[in-house]
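Data availability (excerpt). The following record was deposited with the supplementary files.
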Amino acid sequence: MKRNLKDVRERLRHARARYEAAKDEVASCEKEIANFPKRMNSRRGLAGVQGQKESQTGIHEGV
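Predicted structure:
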C-alpha cells in the first residue's frame, strides 16, 4: 500500500509540473495573440511610410 501511495504522489508531482508548464504556455500564447494586431499595424504603417518615400523620390525598390 505504501509503495502504491508513493507512486501516486510521484505521479501527482509530475502532473502538477506539467500543469504549471501548460499554464505558462497558455499565458505566452495569449500574450502573443494580444500583441499580434499591434505588430500587424506597425508593419502596415512601415509599408505605408516606405511607399510614400518611394513615390516622393521616384525610386522603387522592387525595380
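Summary of structural features: The mean pLDDT is 81.
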